[in-house]
Every structure is written in structure tokens, then in C-alpha cells.
Design brief:
heterodimer; A: alpha+beta; Ubiquitin-like (UB roll); DNA polymerase, domain 1; 2 domains; five-stranded mixed beta sheet; 5 helices; B: alpha+beta; Uridine Diphospho-n-acetylenolpyruvylglucosamine Reductase, domain 3; Enolase-like, domain 1; four-stranded antiparallel beta sheet; 35% helix; globular
Chain lengths: 155, 283
Amino acid sequence: MNMVFQINGRDVGIEVSDSELLLDTLRHIGFSSVREGCGVGACGSCTVLVDGKSVSSCLVLTSRCNGSSILTSEGLADDDPVVSQFIKNGAAQCGYCIPGFVMMVSELLSENPIPTEQEIYNHLEGNICRCGSYPEIVQAAMDASKAKQTSKLTC
Amino acid sequence: MRPNVFRPQSLQEACSLLEEHEEALVYGGGTALQILLKQGILVGSSFIDISGIPGLAEISFTDDFLRVGPMVTLRRMERSEEIRELFSLASSAYAKVANPRVRNTATVGGNIAHGDYRLDPPVALLVLGASVELTSRNSIRKVPLEEFFVDFQVTDISAGEIVTAVEIPRSIHIVGSSFVKLSSLSANDWPSASAAVGLMENDNGVHTLRLALGALAATPVMATVDIRNLNLDQTLEASLSKAMELMDPIADVRGSVKYKLRLGRVAVEEAIRSAWKEVPNGR
């Protein structure tokens, strides 16, 4: 079918087959931050936001996203507080899983701007980092929450 | 073979398609179906994508029921303020399914229709006395959840029927409740045992304990226990003995029969102790 959706704020019109998954569509167009890990929704490497909600793009039919707005980590600003705090905290080793973590933290902070450490753990429970950068990732999420609060106050 | 996807725009159209294409599966959120496709368990199926049908993603309250449309996502059940307030047992069970991304995608209707014996939501919904509305081209019927799960991976849904709502009655007055999920692999994996408990009260105090178990038999199962005049220890004893009658676990990678029986007892006891704490003034 022919469909139109927004990717990182840009309208994109494409033709997709009935069985095409969002992960494959996005990678084919060139969004290589969206990565396949487990392929069954359990690892979080392919996380993107569809209309502001996190999904595993390996389980979502592209055709279902007709008219939707997709955000991948390429769509975040260079000075995005989540990205900045991941860099500051060195919250990556090989980095394969990190775009997924960044998108999950972005979703969390939009729903719950000042999460507790436990709430961060709960929200990231389905993201796996095989390098084990979890302490740095959780610290980055907490620092991003603080940075966002500070920038709100100074605006 | 490439799946064929139909995209009906009305319930009537969807029901007619289901009747015409007996092999077709209703596509809700697709989280279970996509995994089954990748595993090669589903091959060449056609799907009826019901996401384009208006009105199927609504949560509404009537005087008698909470009515949840089949396309409401699990995460909305977890986060809805109204549901948290009125049916906290349901919110807490929906919050335990997989991870937030799966809960943003998976739907209430698909979850029930999947019929797996290890699912979290049905365990809470059984305690809450929920029923399932099934619609076909010529009829609408309501099935109490207790009768909905027929056997291992088998539900009461007949050919041509679609889950069109899950309803939770407002008449069952639960004063304390708890859902406990115990997993042997990772925390967000399928459980080895789960239990939901609801304590029912009338003017004479707490009189009945509603108990449901997940992952401990071929289907989710439930029972009621008369606990009039029983203290906590007596309630635990009566409920555990009832739970032992319900449990008939299937051995798998998540544990042996003996292990699951043991975890089942732990889940029941934890759920009762935690529900008990919610009852105002103890007994």
C-alpha cells in the first residue's frame, strides 16, 4: 500500500508491502540508529517513538503507521539533554543498544519529568545492554531529568 | 508466504471478512502474532487488521461496568487514573506484562484472545469478575471470563467471532487486592507462577476471598474461598488448600512441576498478605 508518515518531522511517502516491519522500513530509508537485536520485542535496540509512544519497531507493521509521526534518535537535537547526559556520563561501551535507551529515557522524561531511580529501572526493564553500562545509563537518565528542570527554570 | 492483510473500516465488514476467510486471524497489536510469524509457527496466514474500525479503542464507564474496547493498549490500562483508582488490581497486572514498548503496542482484546495460560491480565480480570463480549455477523454474546479459557491455548471464541469488549463489573466490592508475579528467568519474562487476590466486603465485613492463578495450570484458573470469621492465618490455610486443588502446572524451561507448585504457594501467600494489609482496620 501507499502511505505517508512523518519521520523526525519530515513527511515521507512510500510504498510498503503488507508484511513489512517498521524496523526494516526505517533502516532501508537510512535511519541506522534503529537496530535489530532480539527481533521479539525483548531487548529494546530497535526502539522508536510512534506518536510519542515507545515501540519495538521489530514488532510493528509499517502500514499501521500511516499518518503517524515517528521519532528516531537521529531526530533529537544535537544539544538534546538526554543525548548530552549520555555522552557526559560515558553511558556507552559498544553503543549498539544506546539509541534504544536514549529513546526510552526521552519517553520516560516526557511522561514523568522527575522520575525516581526505581521508576527509571522500571521503564528501562526491557532494554538490554550486553556491555553492562547500566549504572552510567541510569545516572545519565537522572542527570538528564535535572538538566531539563534547570533549562526550564532558566527559560 | 506473504500474509494478506484486510483493513475493514467497520465491525460489520470485519465480521463478514472473518466469515468469508475462515483461516484469517484478527490482528490487534500484533506483538504475539509477529513473534509467532518469526518463529515459523504461523505460516501464510491472512490477517484482519481492526485498527481502522472506529470506537474500538475506547475506555468507558457505565453505572454497572467499566467497558474496555479491544484496541485499548495494555499501557493505557496501566496508566489510566480512573482505572488505577477503581480497579487497581487490573492496573497492577497490566503493568507487569513484558516491557513498556510491548505494552504500548499490545491490546486488551488481543491479550485475552491469545489465551495463553501464563498471561498476567486474565488473572486479575478473573478476580474482578470480568466478562468478554464476542461479536459475530449475527450475534453478540457475553462470556464470563471463568468460562472463556477452555483448555491449553483454547478459548471460547468461535469461528467468525471478534472480541469487542472486556467488561469489569462495578458491583463486586473489593476492599483489598494484590497481584504477584514470580519469574525464574528475567523479571519481565513469562511467570513461573502468578496469583491475584481480592477480598470482598459487605456490611458484616470481609466475607469472601477471590483467588486466581496464572501459569499454574493449562488455563488461568480461579476459585472463591469463604473466609467469614477467619483470621489471617486461617485464611492463608483455607486459601492454600484451595490453591493446591487448582494447581496442575506444566513443566518447562521456567521450572519443573514441583518447583512451580512451590512457587505457586509462595505467590498465593504473598498476594493474600499484601491484600490483607489494604483492608481498613484489619478485620
